[in-house]
Design goal:
Strand 2 and strand 3 (about 60-65) form a beta hairpin. Helix 1 (about 5-15) crosses helix 6 (about 195-220), helix 3 packs across helix 6 (about 195-220) and helix 5 (about 175-185) crosses helix 6 (about 195-220). The chain has 7 helices and 10 strands. The chain has helices spanning about 5-15, 40-45, 145-150, 160-165, 175-185, 195-220, 225-230, and strands at about 25-30, 50-55, 60-65, 70-75, 80-85, 95-100, 105-110, 115-120, 255-260, 265-270. The strands form 3 sheets. It has a 4-stranded antiparallel sheet. It has about 270 residues and is α+β, with helices and mostly antiparallel strands. Bound molecules: zinc ion.
Length: about 270
């Protein structure tokens, strides 16, 4: 499943190629995605418009058009968004193709169909969409120890569940929540009302560090976006805790432990993470 760093690498790749391109035509498939394909909106607001920018909010890709509309793409579990030269044979799970005026096509492919495409009509604001209730971006300037502490007052929730709550912080999934807390040296089950300012400072620094490292390693993995887009798999940071149960911790050699929190597998070092 693509996590925030992967979506950000895809965004950067697309942003190098898409702005300025005009959408000449749209071919949308009939298969049902997580949400129905917005055919009418695609035709009315995306076809004929020129792409202005490619942005990201949490794990949503936002392709802004010069007419004020935006294409929202969520990759779900297996979604891919790639640029292909016109004439590249279609593959089985291509659900949407935007035919561009530079002899390229932007294709959305998704074998398990948990992803989706939405269109925000011109003048519509993100406040009216599923993006309305997202917390700050972990790589943004408003993700601070002060913000986190203010959200934690009087709350008994375990830290990991809090980190993964998109209303509090946008886009941190299970893998990166485990890796961030390993890096910060804090136990995932620690109650958030008991964290000190010093610990919140470590949570913020580790979040930015771990996500940034992953983005950079993905950037080198996917060096040429256009050529790689057809075949590149998802990448992952070299993991220290996630999936390492029973293996020695890289810091202290204690065996990494596993437990379930809020229905998700959680991995941590019982000695390093207090
Ligand atoms: Zn350890």
């Amino acid at each position: 499943m693509p996590e925030l760093p992967e979506v950000e690498v895809i965004r950067r790749g697309l942003h190098n190629h898409l702005p300025g391109c005009k959408v000449l035509g749209i071919v949308a498939g009939n298969k049902k995605l997580r949400l129905p394909m917005p055919r009418k909106y695609l035709k009315n607001h995306i076809q004929g418009a020129r792409i202005k920018s490619v942005d990201r909010r949490a794990k949503f890709l936002l392709i802004a058009m010069d007419n004020g509309a935006s294409l929202i793409v969520h990759l779900g579990m297996t979604g891919r968004l790639g640029l292909f030269p016109t004439g590249t044979p279609r593959t089985k799970h291509d659900h949407l193709r935007l035919l561009l005026d530079n002899n390229m096509q932007l294709r959305f492919n998704d074998s398990r169909r948990f992803g989706f495409i939405q269109v925000l009509a011109p003048g519509r604001n993100f406040m009216n969409t599923m993006l309305a209730n997202l917390g700050p971006e972990p790589l943004g300037i408003d993700f601070t120890p002060e913000y986190l502490q203010s959200r934690a007052v009087g709350k008994n929730r375990p830290l990991k569940n809090f980190l993964m709550d998109s209303r509090e912080i946008a886009g941190i999934g299970n893998i990166y929540a485990c890796e961030i807390l390993f890096h910060a040296g804090i136990n995932p089950a620690k109650k958030i009302c008991r964290l000190t300012m010093k610990e919140w400072t470590r949570v913020v620094a580790s979040s930015k560090h771990v996500l940034q490292q992953a983005i950079e390693s993905g950037g080198t993995t996917i060096s040429d976006f256009v050529n790689e887009s057809g075949k590149s798999g998802y990448f992952q940071l070299k993991l220290q805790a996630y999936g390492k149960q029973g293996k020695p911790c890289n810091c202290c050699s204690t065996l990494i432990a596993q437990k379930t929190m809020a229905g998700r597998s959680t991995f941590f070092c019982p000695k390093c993470q207090k």
